Amino acid sequence: MCFGLMKFLHTIGSLTELRSLIESRFTIYGVSRIYHVIAARSQRRTVTTYHHYLNHNQTHPPLNPHLSSLQLTRTLSSSSAKMSNLNQAKNIWRKANAVCFDVDSTVIQEEAIDELAKYCGKGDEVQQLTMEAMKGGMDFRQALAIRLDIIRPTSTQLRNFIHGEKHRLTPYVKELVYELHKREKEVYLISGGFKSIIIPVAKDLNIPTSNVYANKLKFYYDGEYAGFDENQLTSRSGGKGAAVRDLKEKHGYETVVMVGDGMTDWEAAPPADLFIGFGGNAYRPEVKNKSKWYVTDFRDLVNELRD
What we know:
Helix content: 40-55%
Strand order of the largest sheet: 3-2-1-6-7-8
Distance between the termini: 65 Å
Number of helices: 14
Largest sheet: 6 strands, parallel
Radius of gyration: 28 Å
Number of strands: 8
């Protein structure tokens, strides 16, 4: 009887008709068990059909074989939306008049303020505050002031740090800036770090020092730490967006792109027309989730310019 029933189940066309047929002949437990077996078979057939389509039309990523038809539809719609956002982002990238880069953990591999703190013997105390600031977990100016009050670098320490601790450029950033310049796109560095530390980075990349937006440290006549210049745009929360707005107003750029690893970079778009998240040095899930385009290798951006 079991063999005959299973053969019958393979050939039945309608789940509703089958359920009506067997409800009068089996116990409730039997009905439930048989119905769910057939439902599972039906779902597998649906998924198989979708997989067959997807295997021959490589538009979307592989789907979970346990999804219902409704879930499959939603997944396909979500994938289509992401693909549309990505294509839109790439179009903006190609036509940009100016590109703005964050510096720490983007153009260079390290966080300069953490490296300065280590140099001054205050590394452990500062690093956690830097992580919180990059996540957007606290007011930027407050985080900057607290960290600098811990480090309290002298002018001599800062000078020796700049000359003695060589920055490490992120792989392929030099090639990327070259490609941007080749296409007559203006390149800017916009950072919550310090201009005196960033100037050598700009020189390595052939970026004019006038294209650097960053903070300035202040010192007393004897070289002791005296604070930072609070008039600089990047010394406060939302400062990178203010810097982008400033350069758009000054130069009349129609399309500006911001590239960076932190929430302070994401917050700059708008006024930037696009934010590209970068995770090649520091992976921050909250940044990836908010990015229309997220890359971990600058070659992706170079290749998009060349295509």
